[in-house]
Specification:
CATH class of the largest domain: Alpha Beta
CATH topology of the largest domain: Beta-Lactamase
Number of helices: 18
CATH superfamily of the largest domain: GAF domain
Number of strands: 18
Helix content: 40-55%
Shape: rod-shaped
Number of domains: 4
Radius of gyration: 60 Å
Length: about 650
Amino acid sequence: MQGTLWNMGGVLLCVLLLLCVSAHKLPSQRLAYIFVYGGGALLLMYILHFAYGPATIALAIAAVLLGSSLLLPFGHTILLTVLLSVFGGWTLVYQTLPTASTYTQPALVGEGVWLSVALLSTISLHFIRQERVQREVNDLRLNVARLMRLNESILQNTSDGVAIQDLEGRFTFFSQTGAALLGYTSEELIGKQGVDLVPAHEKEKIIQADQRRQQGITDSYEIQLLHKSGRRLDVVITGSPYYEDGELVGYLSVFTNISPIRQAQRIQENTARRLQILHDMDRRILDAHSPSEIAAAVLPYLERLLPVDRASVVQYDFPRNMALVLGRWEREQTETIPVQVPLEQFAHSPALQDGKPRVINNLAYAVEHVNHHPSGIERTLLAQGYQSIANIPLLGHDKKLIGVMNLACRQTGAYTTEHIHTATEIATPMALAIQQSLLLSAEQQHRRLAETLQEATASLSHSLDMNKVLDSILACAAKVLPYDSANILLCEKSGFRMLAARGSTITREIIPYDHMPYLRQLLQEKRPKIVPNTRHAPLWRSSENSEAERTWMGIPLLAHEEVIGVLNLHRNQPMAYRHADATLAATFATQAALAIHNARLFQAEQRRRIQMETLRQASLQMTANLDLQETLEGILSHALSISHG
């Protein structure tokens, strides 16, 4: 019993010695395991010794060594094996023999056997554990490699761009997806700096972001990046400091392309802004009355919606081959005084008949190289530095061309499809408003003309004096059809005689019919005739024209289908009268001819009455006087009176 206790105390001493050696290298949790394990091992050795004899100590030693190989380093396990073997062998000798001196050699043999068994067991257990550790290390390496490949794949193929920069701002890594988003390859971006990929006005953001990373701050900010092609991308960058072994070595950035979102937002904002401007413009159009007022309402809004440096609104008058410029606009200047110009100055008007806009985004190239015949206006615009022009047709309810909105910009390539769409949105309500204004004006004009004709008819019937009738005709004609000069020619046997005039001198000389070709045609056709431009009329006689007169309209005065005279109207500008004016003039001329015819009848009746009175007076004188000489003189006097009467 004493030997066993001595032996167990020795084992405990060995374990404590090993614990002291290992305490500074083992964690506290493993030390607790060792204490529990060591105490259990000693208890097991003690129980086995008393229950089964000393031989079972070998099993206890083997169990202790097996556990120590799992808990202690290899060197400590070898030391423990030697100590346990020595004490275990000595215990066997001491317990099985009467005295130690009698059997010293077997004890030594037993000690060597146990030592060999312990060493072999320990070495075997070490190699088993080393193989297991190596297998675990290999598995761990495979897992690490697999994880690295997975992380690399995630970084390269994520929809967001990932980049790593060193402390000097140079890229050391750039994901393939991020590089492709900017139009580059990853290799092209390695070595570049963040400031190389942003517009000039955004460089300060990059510098400030790098400063925040150096301070260990992680945040997000929005910025524009430059694509390789030069276009700009809106992105959100989340940046954070990048550490290795606790030391700051660079910056990690993850950027997300938000260009589609920003573009959609800009489109939405621009649409709302455009609709608001169009709404304000429509309200001003509704408040306008005349076409020039409508043009004045629209022109100031153009620069808020379109790239424009000059604009005009033109109304076409195809029957008269004229164009009415309703308004012009240039930077900070609007002119809305209507100006008439020949339609031929607008060479593009035939091209607008199909209702499609006409756009030239490089006027200089079009004039010099394209099969294009520029108008005088286009050459003037080019000389003034304008490079882009757009002609937007103004279409009425029936899709009929009534005018054009002209745009000009000094920038080349100024007008995109979106701009033309916006311009069409502006032109459509303006065209409808102009057409409505023209219809209303025409209706009001027709009403005024009807009233004027009624008044003229009434005034013409107030007098039967020929001179007063002719003056009244010229006065009423000015209300129906404005003129600069007018005259009335009445037909006689040998030609025309001018009996009344306004704005020109009355010449009472007989004008032969053959002397005036256009009047001769008028007598034959018995309908109004217009010469739009007397200076370009081959049959116009210079003697018939003053220097100022440019437009002539002759209206036959018909009585019982016979031409009794001509009403001549003159304007000082060309293309002043239209066919509609001729129709209106013919209606007025009917009443004027009737008044002249009535005045002639009245004159004839007056002459007949005078003649009858003269004959009566002559008859009375002849019957009252029997002197032949006096009677003959009286008859001659009354005859002369009747012939001049």
